[in-house]
Amino acid sequence: MMPQMLFKNLRLLDPRWDEAREGYEVLVEGELIKEVSSSPISAPNAQVIDCGKRTLMPGLIDCHVHVFLVEVNIRYLENMPLTLLTAKSADLMKGMIDRGFTTVRDTGGADWGIKTAVESGLIPGPRLFISGRAIGPTGGHSDSRRRTDSGAACGCCNAMVYCMAIADGADEVRRTVREQMRQGADQIKIMCSGGVASPYDPLDSLQFSEAEIAAATDEAKNFGRYVLAHAYTPEAITRAVTNGVRTIEHGNLIDDKSAQLLKSKGGYMIANLVTYFSMKERAAQFGMSADMLAKNDIVLEGALRSLETCKAAGVKVGYGTDLLGQLQVDQSQEFMYRAKVLKPIEIIRQATVVGAEILRQEGKLGVVEPGAFADLIVVDGDPLKRLELFLDQGAHLPAIMKAGKFHKNALR
């Protein structure tokens, strides 16, 4: 018989509810939740976890991270060997699960090797849903070359090249997408507009053509995967969604019309507010250039408004942060920025049940129900009343469990 753990004396917050509920018990068996009951559960052989009337809830899901972009100025990755990259990445991932993020979707860079290392317990970290290399056109957001570079650098000693791929024309996009899926990608990342951290592409540039986007989404669909697109402007969002993209990343400059299109196609937006605020405050000290920071100011202005636009159109928004390198410690601050326009329960749902939908893990992640993965966190109080309980690097989370195993347990 698999080992059992029984959580008692708790307030249960399943994010599908509007508030936490008293009197529940939760039985974990192996890596799954076996029973959830409002009356006492009989499990004589289970290890009992007394939660001391704290809140038990699903582990958090961040749908836009970069575990391999370990520097704020990604130019610094040019001279970084993959061995050092992996060590730095391990430290960043431990920080994520320490903060209660038991699942993350890496949106460009992380490969099957680092995913396997986490799954096999060699490195502590959240569940990883990987995109492989982020794919873009020549001169776009994925083109890491300097203007003086004539060819592509070697990926083994240039970590930035390892994280990104260039493809031009529909056939080359198809081949590159197929290669990422051969390498174990859970989803495909493409670039449809300019970006902040890339030096030469204007934010409002339209990158992949319609035919190239359609080639990517067609191949992903054939393989049982989907495409996410980096896109800021209404034009880029419209081009992406019209050609089969399922999730829009960032979307800061989204307007009513493009939001309604995204809603009509059943797509999702993954907003990332904290990264723009953190970059404005602190990125210069870590080497981010003035040109990049100027582009950051443009998208920062639309960040909060994008949440209101999506809410009005009924677009489901996932929790994402997109923080680079040393700024990743700000991951939980995203809750506080969203709280300027959304209710706490709405934000918690974005970081749990909506995230699970985006990952196509409904009923397995983001909820507390039988058959779901035992990815659970215990919170020192009610996060619906104090979102600040998610701050301070997990200091207010005395217990963090992933797949039925404690990453942290201070309740004993």
Amino- and carboxy-terminal Cα gap? 23 Å
Number of helices: 12
The level 1 CATH classification of the largest domain is: Alpha Beta
Strand content: 15-25%
Helix content: 25-40%
Name given to the CATH homologous superfamily of the largest domain: Metal-dependent hydrolases
Q: pLDDT under 50 segments (min length 5)?
A: none
Please identify, by name, the CATH architecture of the largest domain.
Alpha-Beta Barrel
Q: Can you count the beta strands? A: 18
Question: How can the largest sheet be summarized?
Answer: 8 strands, mixed
* Structural domain count: 2
Secondary structure class reads alpha/beta
**CATH fold node name of the largest domain:** TIM Barrel
On the 0 to 100 scale, the average pLDDT is 93
Radius of gyration: 21 Å
Account of the protein in words:
By secondary structure, this protein is an alpha/beta fold. The protein has 2 domains: 4-59 and 366-409, Urease, subunit C, domain 1, CATH 2.30.40; 60-358, TIM Barrel. Helix content is 30%, strand content 21%. It has helices at 82-98, 112-119, 159-163, 170-182, 210-222, 234-242, 256-264, 274-282, 290-313, 334-338, 344-350, 353-358; strands at 4-12, 21-29, 32-37, 47-50, 55-58, 60-65, 101-106, 127-129, 134-136, 164-166, 188-191, 227-231, 247-250, 268-271, 316-319, 376-379, 399-402, 405-409. Strands 1, 2, 3, 4, 5, 16, 17 and 18 form an 8-stranded mixed β-sheet that branches. The model has no long low-confidence stretch (mean pLDDT 93).
